[in-house]
Every structure is written in C-alpha cells, then in structure tokens.
Amino acid sequence: MNVGSKGMAYPHINPCDKAVKKVKTRISEITARNQTWRPLDEVVRDMNRTLRGWSEYFHFRNSSAVFLKVKRFAEERLRIHLRKRYKVTNWKSAMIQFPRCVLYEKHGLYKLSTIAGWKMAHAST
Description:
Group II intron maturase-specific domain-containing protein; Mat_intron_G2
C-alpha cells in the first residue's frame, strides 16, 4: 500500500513486468528489420491493434509510468522501422525527419494515454 498526498492509503497497481515485456516483444516483432517489405499502413495497423488491446486491458489505477515507458518504446520502434525502410543512416536525421508529431499525425500511431483512469480492476471482490 502506498500513501497519497492526503494521507489516504491506496493500492499501487501496475501491469506486471511479464506483461510489459510481452507487449514490447510483440511490438519488436511487428517492427523488425525483416518486416520492411510490408506496407507501412499494415505495420502501423498491427502496432495500433496491439497497443490498443494491451492498454484497454491494463489501463486502471496508477499505471501511468509503465504506460509512458511502453509509449516511448513504441515510438522508438516505429522510428527505427522508418529509418530502415527509408534508409536514413543518421539517428539525428531520423529524429528530425520522424518526430513524434509525424508518428502520430502522418503515420497514425495509436497514442497510448499516460494518464491512467481510475476504474475498477477486472477482478471482482
């Protein structure tokens, strides 16, 4: 139990490390080097499906820090995939060519919410 700013105790609930590792592995598989032959919209669609499903299942209580890590990981993996696809060799050039706004607005990456909702967990008491 953690104690909040008003002195009230609350349970600290996060997705387990195994679940985070599994979603990161899945994103890595989708954006792997050998997947540059696939149409980009198909790659992004698969990433979005994975991120949306994972976030809907685990989005409760105070899991914002974990969601931020997964969000940043997904951004970096898509950026790496775009670098390989368009043969951008310099990392700095890739950051300029593919900033976050381009990943979300142009390519349509699902924006993982880093503000966790305070809904009840799936298990009933």
